Amino acid sequence: MNTSCNNSSWSCRSGHAIYSSYLEHSRIDMQAEDANAYVARALRLVIENVLAQLSTTLVVTISTRDLKTATWFEYMMNILMDSWRMVAVQLLGFRPDLVSNPVPGRKRVNLLMVDSYGGLLDTNITADNADFDDPDYYFIFLQARDHLIPKELQLILDHCLAHFWLHCNVMIQTAQVEVLVYTYFPYTAASCQEAHPVLVNTFDGRHWMRSAKMFPDKLSQMHGCPLTVLTWHQPPFVELLWDPKAKSHRAAGFEIQLMEHLARGMNFSLELANIALLPPNAYRLADGASRGPIERLQQHSVNVSLGYFRKTALRNGLLTTPMSYYSANLVAVLQLERYRLGSLALLAFPFELPVWLLLLLALLIHLGIHLPRRGVENQGGGGGGLQVVGLLLGASLARLPRPWRHRFIAAHWLWASLPLRISYQSLLFHLIRLQLYSTPSFSLEQLLAEGFQGICTANTQRLLLEMPQVARSPDRFHSLDTPSDWDVLNALQQNRNRKIFAVVNQDITRSFLHSSSHPSAYHVVKQPVNVEYIGMYMPKHSFLYEKVDDALRRLDAAGFILAWRRASFGFVHRRERVQHSSRRFINHAKLSGIYMVMAGMYLLAGLVFAGELVLWRRNLKKAKS
């Protein structure tokens, strides 16, 4: 054979080509057929007992950079397909000799067959699943030479850790036909945030030794590893207090209490990263500065962000968030002083318009009867017009008219006006005591139609601008340079004479009103402006999502979250009430209506007295002449 190859190069090359073709099509160069069946049985048990329990669909991806390995994977799939009728399959193949783009779309449960870390990158599956929050599963079959397996295995597990693939297993087959499954634990007693290969299962030819732990729980015990919490001062959700002994900030509040409970259950420690919220013009993204909360989460420099962080569509698209543990209405609050009835309106309020019209008609009739006529002064009835007004106000007559009909009319007018005076005075003083207000607005649209200006925080303004009725008139809303709704309500209290209203959180409003020295001086519009949902945010596709979301749902179902929330708001309410107790004094502004009415009554009485005095002197001069 060697002689013929030396004598004829063409026949030698032909023989090698025939032999290579035989090897490729028969696949005997890979391994024995019984070894192929051994591996196929292992894969089939994984699919039927593990992957099929997670989803009714399965994505099988073959991605290799070696043609022979790709051919062998296809042969393995043929063996599986012969007896596989359990689940719908989407088969994807990536070969370097075929020019094709990866198939986009969500791939939740995956069986990947690769020959190297580079083959895994070619699938582009990282980008396909990066925008989804729910967990996904990766069972990766790595077929490589034994001396290459440790390096490729480590690269694949590092890739799983970097892209938050928590449920990531790698199956290998050695030259001795050993089928082993490795995974990694991101948090162990020896290291944190590292991906060291850990053997979790082996195949004995008939079944997996530990089939119930193919995807073990990796976050039930985090061995005290630290999680960095990005937060800021936002009571009562997060309250940062300076500890002089430790010379650092100590965190309290509703959300911190919730995170501490999670830390005890999952055994991790908290590291606070306190930042100061910047004004809106300092933000590069819609919700993040160059070192703002969103960008720091995207850069994976922190694990969780807390601090009254509202959920929005933009933030949900950029980050991962579990269930919302707090929701409340955004309400409009304004000073009732704007709806207080003025002095003239208060004087006219006791009687409705028909009563005033009838009273005016009766007054005109009596004035017509008592108007000075020829010979009235001679009869002693001087000043008849003023006498009619005086009788209406309850004044007595200096002298009775001589004609009996005038006396009868005066008596009738006096007695008829008596119940009117009693009713009017009683209602008037009752309404002054009640501090009567006109009907305030009941919706945001009415406030804007009445010419009110809105004030709020920058984050609230950004949320309001997404509403159509606000977007049509954005100049009607002004943001204050503060992240706290308490400061917005304080600004509303200090600007009593301006036509403004505040858009703030409903629970914070209740605490503020209870702590205020004049809670009845404010009006909360009945129709909510919007509804806000609060939650913690994590880097996109974070593997903490599944565990934290499940824990939050359990706490919410048991009522713990509601109890902690009420306690936090109640504590702030009690503290603010002590701080504002010194301001509780009698407000003379509430008595201004009484002062004005009494001054008006004395003025009117003085005018009537002066008129009667002038008429008396005129009549006296005429009598002397």
Automatic annotation (TrEMBL):
Task: Name the membrane topology term.
Answer: Multi-pass membrane protein
Transmembrane ranges, per UniProt, are 344-369, 593-616
Alphabetical keyword list = Cell membrane, Glycoprotein, Membrane, Receptor, Transmembrane, Transmembrane helix
Query: Where would you find this protein in the cell?
Result: Cell membrane
Signal peptide span per the entry? none
Positions of the Putative ionotropic receptor ligand binding domain:
30-220
Q: Which Pfam families match?
A: LBD_receptor
- Indicate what this protein is called per its UniProt record: Putative ionotropic receptor ligand binding domain-containing protein
Organism listed in the record? Drosophila rhopaloa
